[in-house]
Amino acid sequence: MKKYRFETKSVDDYRPLIDTKDIQMPWWCSGTGDDHATIVCYLPDEEDLIDYWDDAYNIEIEEVDEIKYSSRFAKPSWIN
To answer: Taking the CA of residue 42 as centre, how many other CA atoms within 13 Å lie in the half-sphere pointing to its CB?
Structure first.
């Protein structure tokens, strides 16, 4: 799977276009600026980030074997 960190132009509503609950992959907004939000998310290899956030830019990608939760990036309540 891939862990992404990127910016999106949507400051007020930065939710993904496709609900990630269906694929049980978490995402978080890690901060906002005047004209962007910074998002961190996990997606399976076969999923395309642009399908979920079509305005993503400054994209960083890391190949990972597992989802790592922390106090800053806590497990969302909708993840089983």
So the answer is: 18
CB 39 within 8 A of CB 28: yes
Would you say 36 and 8 are in contact if contact means Cβ atoms under 8 Å apart?
A: yes
Q: Give the global pTM.
A: 0.93
pLDDT along the chain (80 residues), means of 10: 96 92 95 94 97 97 97 94
The answer to whether the CB of 25 falls within 8 A of the CB of 66 is no
| Structure tokens that stand for 64 in this block | 């990972």
Phi, psi at 6, each rounded to 5°: -160, 175
Quick one: residue 24, left, alpha or beta (phi over 0 = left, psi -120 to 50 = alpha)? left
For 50, the enclosing helix (H) or strand (E) is helix 49-52
